[in-house]
Hints:
Blueprint: E1 5-10, H1 15-27, E2 35-37, H2 43-51, E3 58-63, E4 67-68, H3 73-79, E5 86-94, H4 101-109, E6 114-117, H5 122-125, E7 136-140, H6 141-144, H7 159-168, E8 172-182, H8 189-205, H9 207-210, H10 216-240, H11 247-265, H12 272-278
Helix pairs in contact: 4-10, 8-11, 10-11
Amino acid sequence: MDNRYSVIVSGITEPEERDNISRLLKEQSVLPAEVYFAESEDVNTGINKAMRDVKTAFVWILSGKALLEQPDTAEKMLSSFSDPEVAAVYSGQRSGKKGSISDAYQAAFFPEKQIVKEEKDIYFHGMETFFISNTSCMYRMADLKDLPPFEPMGLSFSEHVVAANLIHLGKKIVYEGNVTVKASHKLTPRTALHEGFDYGVLGKRDIQAFGYYVVYDVMWRTLSQTYRNARRTACGYLVKNGAFYKVPGALLICLCLNAGCKLGRRYHRLPAGINRALCSDKNFFVS
């Protein structure tokens, strides 16, 4: 197998930041064929432009704000591609703030185990099957060439549509939970409401991608179950780490995620002003 890979670093615009990232990659023994920087205020537009120049068999999209926690991260992710049906591999995430609510939810959504997701899982896990994160994700370039590019930013989680298209083509998505990056993600009731709303809009708008082989109600029932499991895991994490006093805050976060998602599903019935207020991108609902 040709294991050559390129790295696309997103979210970095300043020249000094690029030099610093290049130095850090070398220090962490990340030795790709090429390093590209997604040069655009819109992250996905920058990634799409950089993709056109990639000549290697694999491409690793890595947030410029993410820090690798293992020196052999690339090798571990590449090893999953020994299965020719695997089209993408994404790694786990931790906030680096042990005992925080953000780290609790990252532990819930990014468990310390490997998960292989394929088409048959849609019937049991619904939209959770399409979960993927471009904070640290490696793709097989041959599997992306016939797919639409990443959608220009507007809604959070737009890379999930790419994952859904891959799975509907019979490909597999692998989550490597034993490989982690440190990525700060400040989760507050407000950001949770925005993220839940974005996900609801995404699932409703892209029903052809997410629900092609799935009964619509199954998708949302399984998503509600996902939120309940995350709430239980996050609260258990906080208690285990002696931060039981943060449990009410964690419960509020889950309530906001669920409420935002339910509102997002009904965005077409809501006034434009409310949609703009709830969406993470205020310009998304501007006609």
